[in-house]
Amino acid sequence: MPEKHKAHSKYFLIPAVLCLILLAAALLLPQFGEAPQLEVPADASAPTDPEASAPEEFPQGTDMSQFTTFSLGRYGDYPMGSSLQRMYETATRVVLGEFTAFQEAVSIPSDPFNPIKESENSHLERHYYRFTVEQCLKGDVEPGSIIVDIPYMWQIKGEITNMILDEKTGVILKEATMHDPYEIEVPHEFYMEPVPGEKVLLFLAYRPSERIYYPALEPYVIAFDAEGIAEWRSNLFLPRSEREELATSTGLTESGRTVTCVQRNLLDELELEDQISGKTLEQLLEEIAILQLPAEEPSPDEEAELLWE
User: Fold this and answer.
1) Which has the closest alpha carbon to 169: 66, 70, 58, 72?
2) CB 3.0 to 4.6 Å from 94: which of 11, 127, 138, 267, for a disulfide?
3) How far is CA 194 from CA 4, 15, 148, 243, in A?
4) pLDDT tens for residues 45-104?
5) Which DSSP letter does residue 300 get?
6) Predicted local confidence at residue 70, as pLDDT
7) CB within 8 A of 269, min separation 6: which ones?
8) Phi, psi (degrees; rounded to nearest 5) at 12
9) For residues 266 and 168, what is the distance between their CA atoms, to the nearest angstrom?
10) Measured between alpha carbons, how far is 290 from 255 in angstroms, rounded to an integer?
11) What is the pLDDT of residue 259?
12) For residue 57, what is the DSSP state?
């Protein structure tokens, strides 16, 4: 073969070989298939679509029969008298005199969590005492005998059940099939029995529909001994351990289970500093006389200073 034809054949041979290799690869690739995939066990965790919804979780129900202790919380129903001025400003009636006798006990339907609301399952027993007014220091109270209403005891009815309750939503998951009723008496945590014949200052409010007076705040009593020395009187001044004991009551269900009620009040967390005990009656009357004075209006110069502050 001439040399010229040999040279051309070499140039055609290289592309032909490349075409054969590519054709073989194209034919063989489907036999091998796609790249092998790792097998993931069915219980293995794998990345999930963040927008995909998670499977529904059923809340764990709580068997309510395990709870035999409940809190009787009352927040804000008793303003605190942190000073003589605070007591005087809060009360609508301030009287000096003495308790003379217990008159009667009255039971009123009342919700312990909201005392102004009636309830079929609880009552508040109130004790009415006769009080002789010697002097009125605020309000319109004529000297003579009045009735002072002092909250004494809650009487609460309830029941322990095996109802299943959703802890998160409060939805009943299963109705109760067991009912174990109880009645429990809970002494009012601020009740203190008056001492007949003892001279006291009372800071009161008034219910005109019943013509009855009642504590306007806590403490509401300043008592005086025979020498006229004051004692600011309230269960709030008791040691915390004694206050907790007074606030805890127990009762029995029909089946004999013990039920415990623990009273809670915002005042329980406050520390009251006694700035009244030890003073004389004359000193306190002088302080009240100052509180009775009308507030002085600021002078033009004082008003100008207030504007700049």
Assistant:
1) 58
2) 138
3) 137, 120, 11, 19
4) 333 443 334 333 334 566 666 766 666 655 445 678 889 999 999 999 999 999 999 999
5) H
6) 63
7) none
8) -80, -25
9) 26
10) 61
11) 87
12) P
